[in-house]
Amino acid sequence: MKYAKLWPVCIFSVAICIAAIILGVSVSKIGAPVRTVYVKGLCEIERPADHVVWPLAHTELSNSLQTIYASIENKNNIILNFLQKGGVDKSEISVNNILIEDRDANNYSGDKASFRYKVTQVITISTDKVDTVRQLIAKQMVLLKQNIFITSSKWEFPVKYSFNALQDVKPMMIQQATQNARMSAQKFADDSESQIGKIKTASQGQLSITPRDENTPHIKTLRVVTSVEFFLQD
């Protein structure tokens, strides 16, 4: 009976000791500095453009608007036939309003222009058939042989290539950038004789899409940078 009364006291004492040990460990962990490493990861890939906008501009000069209109209409028909035979759908072609310049009215130098009227017609193709358009651009000599000169100005009538399937490759790029960030973090960990832990914070930087170079605007360079902070463990 005497020893039976001591059991509760012993159990309570053991429980207090265990709690003290756990509390001591917890306080030790709370007081220990949290070590992290902050790194950036890069992913860069190339993809062909999946959409193109091609403005075909041609200009007529004359002293007679009626003569210009007839010539513009005839050349428009030739261009439309050239495009549709080349594989561009009619729904992908738009004929813009003509631009008329009365050179006599806008001539501030006082010298009379050789031709009074300058009329510019722009026909715009907007399509996902990038390869088809590039083949047609290479065949513009066909139009030149029919006395149709297409104005090719990088500033006024540029051919614009774009990449619209970003959401299809974005997850893969972020994953690759994060993996590259972990490799960089691992280097820091190795130098400090530590181990890489879980991610503490992560953020995605700007994702940019640019031409590979000025000579191949139809090839796009996609670039994403991620910023990741990892825990370091002993």
> Under CATH, the topology of the largest domain is which?
Alpha-Beta Plaits
Order of helices and strands: HEEHEEEHHEHEEE
Structural class of the helix and strand makeup? alpha+beta
> Can you tell me the residue ranges where pLDDT is under 50 for at least 5 consecutive residues?
17-29
**CATH superfamily membership of the largest domain:** Protein of unknown function (DUF541), domain 2
* Largest pleated sheet: 5 strands, antiparallel
Counted beta strands? 9
Secondary-structure arrangement, i.e. CATH architecture of the largest domain: 2-Layer Sandwich
Separation of termini? 52 Å
Could you name the CATH class of the largest domain?
Alpha Beta
In angstroms, what is the radius of gyration? 35 Å
Provide structural commentary:
The structure is a single chain. The chain has helices spanning 2-31, 65-85, 130-138, 141-144, 166-191, and strands spanning 36-48, 51-62, 93-95, 99-102, 117-127, 160-162, 195-204, 208-211, 219-233. Helices cover 38% and strands 32% of the residues. It has two domains: 32-47 and 165-233, Protein of unknown function (DUF541), domain 1 (Translation Initiation Factor IF3, 2-Layer Sandwich), CATH 3.30.110; 51-162, Alpha-Beta Plaits (2-Layer Sandwich). The longest helix is centred in the N-terminal third of the chain and has 30 residues, at 2-31. The chain contains five helices and nine strands. The radius of gyration is 35 Å and the shape is elongated. The strands form two sheets. Strands 2, 3, 4, 5 and 6 form a five-stranded antiparallel sheet that branches. Strands 1, 7, 8 and 9 form a four-stranded antiparallel sheet that branches. The protein is an alpha+beta fold.
